[in-house]
Amino acid sequence: MAPVPDPNNISGGAKRDEATTKVPSKDPKKKDDKKEEDMSEEDLQLKQNLELYVERVQDPNPELQKTALESMSSFESLGYRLTGTEGDIGSWGHEYVRNLAGEIAEEYTMRQGEESPVDDLMDLVQQIVAFHMKHNAETEAVDLLMDVEDLDLLLKHVDSANFRRTCNYLTSAAKYLPGPDDMLVLDIAYTIYIKFEEYPNALQIALFLDNMQYVKQVFTSCTDLLRKKQFCYMISRHGITLELDPEMVSDDVDREMLQDIVNNTKLSDGYLTLARDIEVMEAKTPEDIYKAHLLDGRVTSGPSVDSARQNLAATFVNAFVNAGFGQDKLMTVPSDSTSGSAANWLFKNRDHGKTSAAASLGMILLWDVDSGLAQLDKYFHSNDNPIIAGALLGVGIVNCGIKNDCDPALALLGEYIDKEDSSVRIGAIMGLGIAYAGSQNDQIRSSLSPILNDAKAPLDVIAFAALSLGMIYVGSCNEEVAQSIIFALMDRSEAELGEALTRFLPLGLGLLYLGKQESVEATAEVSKTFNEKIRKYCDMTLLSCAYAGTGNVLKVQDLLAQCGEHLEKDDIHQGPAVLGLAMVAMSEELGLDMEIRSLERVLQYGEQNVRRAVPLSLGLLCISNPKVTVMDTLSRLSHDTDSEVAMAAIISLGLIGAGTNNARIAGMLRNLSSYYYKDASLLFCVRIAQGLVHMGKGLLTLSPFHSERLLLSPTALAGIVTLLHACLDMKSIILGKYHYVLYFLVLAMQPRMMLTVDENLKPISVPVRVGQAVDVVGQAGRPKTITGFQTHSTPVLLAAGERAELATDKYIPLSPILEGFIILKENPDYREE
């Protein structure tokens, strides 16, 4: 027992009148006297002090109240509970149980330190958890069980009334727990969801844990074919490759149909349904985006800008804006006209510009594999290598995220990997990387790995081969690919290590471990033996990829320490460290806001290398989510005296506004286009950013997160991070001859839609409410999950941070999270009013 503090020493300055200090006088009744006499002196002292505290708590002076309360709490209720008679724990009320739980947690930690037994505590914990779970205090039950490291107890106490709230709290808490606790917590949530047949939620957690056994278990536990179709839509949105086997779906015809959904073959149709509904099918030209007529007259004056660069910019703008619509004004020729405008546009670009121009056709026909391959076919008969290279890349882009049993991309691109011309080889290699990202296809590995260790292969071919292998095996921790890339890095000469493209080798290596935390350690050890020119760069890239999306605070501190160093000019490793800050912290809102603040500091105190990467880092944190504060910071940096900082800021303005049609960013970029009208490089960046803001005419997003920001698509993040690494050396890569690296963004492009379909997967229109999502985890009752909503009929667009809910009881959605394709089944209990 803790010593009882003397009540008369209570400091508190208030003048104590006699009445308060007096202990209540004894009642003259003999019985009580008898009791008093039975008490030992110690107990008498205790009783008197306690009575005094009770009076003090009612004192008007807050200081006195506080001290009295603290003194009372040192009467450990836990000690009494353990020694006293055991009655119903709840009869003492909630506050008592809550207090007890707090003391148990502290006592447990103490005993763990002393290694003394905790059985008596665990009996109490059982009672407290049972009490909390009955009285809607699931969060407190979970907290207590986390403190005493015994979450398995939950499984006994969850029931159909409280399991949702419990699991919601578990999944939200997991973001803030250190490993491996976070995984254990999610495991429990998964088990509870499976127990109550809440399969869509269980599947989400299985995808979050990247546990294919769990994904399989969801399919085998569920018998309803319609629900399985919904699972397939969820898996296809996450972008992983999954082969359904007879255990998961027994019927062959059904399995083929479900595999079609997983392969994402319906994405193009759904996207075009949305486009027709919102009436944006009309093709747009780059001029429609630039809106030069809104600016002063000075922009168009004088042919000061080199026109090939301008045409190249227009190619990208056209590709981004009309992405997936299947028609545009530059590349796709209307069938009735014989004079091909496409051919003319292609030849308005110089050499490597033709590669991007030909590939842009793939972007316009995005996700529509059949007509994409048909329209790209004509370029394969060209004698011009850059055009063939572009066609190969275009094939990869068309197939991005769409799987196909007959593997058309592999069949077409495979034979070009070992051609003479290096631009053709890069086109084929990059095409394979985009088409098969995340598929872990061994056939491609066996044809790309040899390139890495081929002494005759040029550096750029090797760099893109490493990058494509990183994409195809993203997050797989594949040893063999890692070995090949490590050897390729060790074989580079001093001169080659100074080249801009060499940075793709460590990046390819990092992508293998994307989000896989400790698994990277062995490779990170090996990287310490590299040439010192690339060693630190490799180290930072591996660290930032491995902890991407984990929110790991310690890693953020490590990276911040790297950014704070003031080094010589030619050190390049601080760039990826700054990007790493954003990659690690982007997973949840709190860390994200803290990171934006830290970057402000980095911007003020960092060296030039660091400042150049900060805008890109901000672009990643708020991708497709234009936060006003970040927008203002980037707007300020876009006029920076250092042109590299300005270029990065302009590209990032495009990234944070990607696919939002944000009017404010569009206005900023228009003004920048007149401000930089004489500077070809900066103007090029402004044009690219304008294309990004109007991407897919405002129907697409680049955010790698989906399912209410719970899941992070690894392939999407890989595409974005690759572009950002390329932007660390804007002049050599994006403004050099490797501008087609911009097409890696296609990996992250997804329609930001919610499309409802009926049981036969045909689109149906139902009213839905769309509003700002509200975090209701752990709140009492059934609070509203969205605020400030508007009612629309599906299909609808969802902006960042928005959530949808059905505005009718006529249908029941088969997934609790209304994003992407949602199957509705008719509600049997529905009665028309």
Automatic annotation (TrEMBL):
<dbReference type="GO" id="GO:0034515">
    <property type="term" value="C:proteasome storage granule"/>
</dbReference>
<dbReference type="GO" id="GO:0030234">
    <property type="term" value="F:enzyme regulator activity"/>
</dbReference>
<dbReference type="InterPro" id="IPR011989">
    <property type="entry name" value="ARM-like"/>
</dbReference>
<feature type="compositionally biased region" description="Basic and acidic residues">
    <location>
        <begin position="14"/>
        <end position="37"/>
    </location>
</feature>
<keyword id="KW-0832">Ubl conjugation</keyword>
<dbReference type="InterPro" id="IPR002015">
    <property type="entry name" value="Proteasome/cyclosome_rpt"/>
</dbReference>
<protein>
    <recommendedName>
        <fullName>26S proteasome non-ATPase regulatory subunit 2 homolog</fullName>
    </recommendedName>
</protein>
<dbReference type="InterPro" id="IPR016024">
    <property type="entry name" value="ARM-type_fold"/>
</dbReference>
<dbReference type="GO" id="GO:0005634">
    <property type="term" value="C:nucleus"/>
</dbReference>
<comment type="subunit">
    <text>Component of the 19S regulatory particle (RP/PA700) base subcomplex of the 26S proteasome. The 26S proteasome is composed of a core protease (CP), known as the 20S proteasome, capped at one or both ends by the 19S regulatory particle (RP/PA700). The RP/PA700 complex is composed of at least 17 different subunits in two subcomplexes, the base and the lid, which form the portions proximal and distal to the 20S proteolytic core, respectively.</text>
</comment>
<keyword id="KW-0647">Proteasome</keyword>
<dbReference type="Pfam" id="PF18051">
    <property type="entry name" value="RPN1_C"/>
</dbReference>
<keyword id="KW-0677">Repeat</keyword>
<comment type="similarity">
    <text>Belongs to the proteasome subunit S2 family.</text>
</comment>
<dbReference type="InterPro" id="IPR041433">
    <property type="entry name" value="RPN1_C"/>
</dbReference>
<dbReference type="InterPro" id="IPR040892">
    <property type="entry name" value="RPN1_N"/>
</dbReference>
<feature type="domain" description="26S proteasome non-ATPase regulatory subunit RPN1 C-terminal">
    <location>
        <begin position="777"/>
        <end position="830"/>
    </location>
</feature>
<dbReference type="InterPro" id="IPR016643">
    <property type="entry name" value="26S_Psome_Rpn1"/>
</dbReference>
<dbReference type="GO" id="GO:0042176">
    <property type="term" value="P:regulation of protein catabolic process"/>
</dbReference>
<dbReference type="Pfam" id="PF17781">
    <property type="entry name" value="RPN1_RPN2_N"/>
</dbReference>
<feature type="region of interest" description="Disordered">
    <location>
        <begin position="1"/>
        <end position="45"/>
    </location>
</feature>
<feature type="domain" description="RPN1 N-terminal">
    <location>
        <begin position="76"/>
        <end position="294"/>
    </location>
</feature>
<dbReference type="GO" id="GO:0043161">
    <property type="term" value="P:proteasome-mediated ubiquitin-dependent protein catabolic process"/>
</dbReference>
<comment type="function">
    <text>Acts as a regulatory subunit of the 26 proteasome which is involved in the ATP-dependent degradation of ubiquitinated proteins.</text>
</comment>
<dbReference type="Pfam" id="PF01851">
    <property type="entry name" value="PC_rep"/>
</dbReference>
<dbReference type="GO" id="GO:0008540">
    <property type="term" value="C:proteasome regulatory particle, base subcomplex"/>
</dbReference>
